[in-house]
Amino acid sequence: VQEEKIFAGKVLRLHVCTMEGAEWLEEVPEDTTVEKLKERCLKHCLPGSLEDPKTVTHHKLIHATSEKVLTDTKTVLEENIQDRDVLLLIKKRAPPPLPKMADVSAEEKRKQEQKAPDKDAILKATANLPSRNADRTVAHHNMRDFQTELRKILVSLIEVAQKLLALNPDAVELFKKANAMLDEDEEDRVDEIALRQLTEMGFPESRAVKALRLNHMSVTQAMEWLIEHADDPTVDAPLPGQTPSEATAEAGASSAEVTAGPSSEAGGEEAKDELTEIFKKIRRKREFRPDPRAVIALMEMGFDEKEVVDALRVNNNQQNAACEWLLGDRKPSPEDLDKGIDTNSPLFQAILENPVVQLGLTNPKTLLAFEDMLENPLNSTQWMNDPETGPVMLQISRIFQTLNRT
Questions:
Q1: Which of 9, 83, 93, 297 could make an SS bond with 30 (beta carbons 3.0 to 4.6 A apart)?
Q2: Which parts of the sequence belong to the UBA domain (predicted)?
């Protein structure tokens, strides 16, 4: 008995198929490599093909059950092929031919044609076209004019609303309630839970209040600010543009005065005077509150605090726009913001003739919304979403946009 037959591996009988429909049985030891098996298969189905050494590499064996391509260097055993398994012998797809230089040039040319034109190409193509207000600064000034015009509309509508509400016999009582609502919703109030968390950590209450206001009531950011400014000599200084103690005192005095009010026997003139005083007190409560972070950032650039507050008021608390205003011609001026719109203008007449606006002007809440948006434009979203004031603001916006396009 020959030695190799004694130690030979297990013989597997494999069914081999081709794409052309040929099928036969191959008996191979399990230690046979896939490459050797492939050569035997090619000798059976393509006699003489092995004269070309590339024939073996151009074909592959696939295990039919697992759909796995067998690796040439592995044995049948390593590929986990079992007795009576079915293998498929197929020719590999030829790689795509390399593109010719002419084709490459044509493809590059097509990509260049589809590429967006650069600035020089645009200027060259539009050099002979007539100019039609293409200056970007004009669009910028138009936006600024829109903000200024809207403020003028609010100023004039506040005057109209005050006159209409003064005729309401219940106006004083209505505005007493409105004034009390403002006391409850003061922006200067601090989140008590957040304040308690910081004071329990050992931070002084006054310093914790300042940190929360600077960081929009975020406990984490306020704590980081307190740690960062622990050794800052100005850490306890009041925020720029804010005097909380004075504001609190004034608010308390205002509330006391309003609560006192005239007696039920007071005449119409006294009620009218009291209503005027309530208007003034509500207006003082709605005074513009500059963003403390923006104030500090602009003051660090060297600008005076009063100039910074004016710039933020003109530019709706937007720091970048306020910086441009400070460095530019400073128009519109803060005084321009208190001027109303021409009452004889078509825009103002169209607004007053709108039924929704007319009805809204008899609602004290609308007046409060106008006052709030006048001094704090960033709160406009709140009033736009309010079911009572939202429809009024929507009509004003539509009328303005309609007349601005004509």
A1: 9
A2: 183-229, 289-329
All structural domains of the chain with their residue ranges: 11-91, 187-229
pLDDT in tens, 340-356: 888 888 888 999 999 99
Phi-psi region of 202 (alpha: psi -120 to 50; beta: other; left: phi over 0): left
For the chain, the distance separating the N- and C-terminal CA atoms, rounded to the nearest angstrom, is 110
- For the ranges 17-31, 46-60, 106-120, the lowest mean pLDDT is seen at 106-120
Angle at 319 between CA 318 and CA 322, to 5 degrees: 85
CATH, range 11-91? 3.10.20.90
Q: Is 123 left (phi over 0), alpha (psi -120 to 50) or beta?
A: alpha
Coil, strand or helix: which one is 288?
coil
Q: Determine the Cα angle at 371 with ends 366 and 376, to 5°.
A: 120
Distance of CA 215 to the CA centre of its chain: 19
Q: Is the pTM of this model over 0.85?
A: no
